[in-house]
Amino acid sequence: MKKIDPKEIRDNAVQLIGHDWMLVTAGTPEHFNMMTASWGGLGFMWKRPVAFVVIRPQRYTFGFIEKGEEFTLSFFSHEYHKALSVCGTTSGRDTDKVAASGLTPYVTENGNVSFGEARLVLECRKLYAEALKPECFLDKAIASEWYAAGDFHKMYIVEILNAWVEE
Asked: Belongs to which family (predicted)?
């Protein structure tokens, strides 16, 4: 992987996250979990390159994100969609997702986990976190459609510390 400045990311974020998906990976090299996500974004805030991700509290990865300060977002070519499906439909509580997905973990220079098959890796540090609140939805239909069970995501705004692309 080649390290780049986050300003050099050329991908369309809507395509990257909404269609290609990403793996959110948190924890230590000895104990981590990853989950597939297709909601989030990339941008610039507080004079920093940022990403935002939303995680439901019942997801196993949520505890890892809450405990740590940093995590990775890993993006893959379409040929890895099946592996990402495994990571999004099974729980790390009772499944070895690394074995089930066939992905190869590696440790970043900051000690976070990503995967050798990724074509883009963003190493991120938490800046802001807040649970989504039903009363804050201006379009009430969104809360009704996506949160009928009341299981609102927690949103994290994270600084992109490091970015790598495949060479």
From this structure: Belongs to the flavoredoxin family.
Select from 57, 42, 61, 62 the least CA-distant residue to 158. Answer: 42
CATH 2.60.260.20 describes domain 2-165: no
- Predicted confidence at residue 61, as pLDDT, reads 97
Alpha helices in 5-74 (DSSP H): 13, 60-67
Q: Which helix H or strand E contains 34, and what residues bound it? A: strand 31-37
Residue with tokens 């609102």: 152
Q: Give the burial class of 76: count Cβ atoms within 10 A of its Cβ; 0-12 exposed, 13-18 middle, 19 or more buried.
A: buried
pTM exceeding the 0.85 threshold for the entire prediction: yes
- What tens digit of pLDDT does each residue of 124-153 get? 999 999 999 999 999 999 999 999 999 999
Q: Do the Cβ atoms of 78 and 117 come closer than 8 Å?
A: no
pLDDT at 62: 97
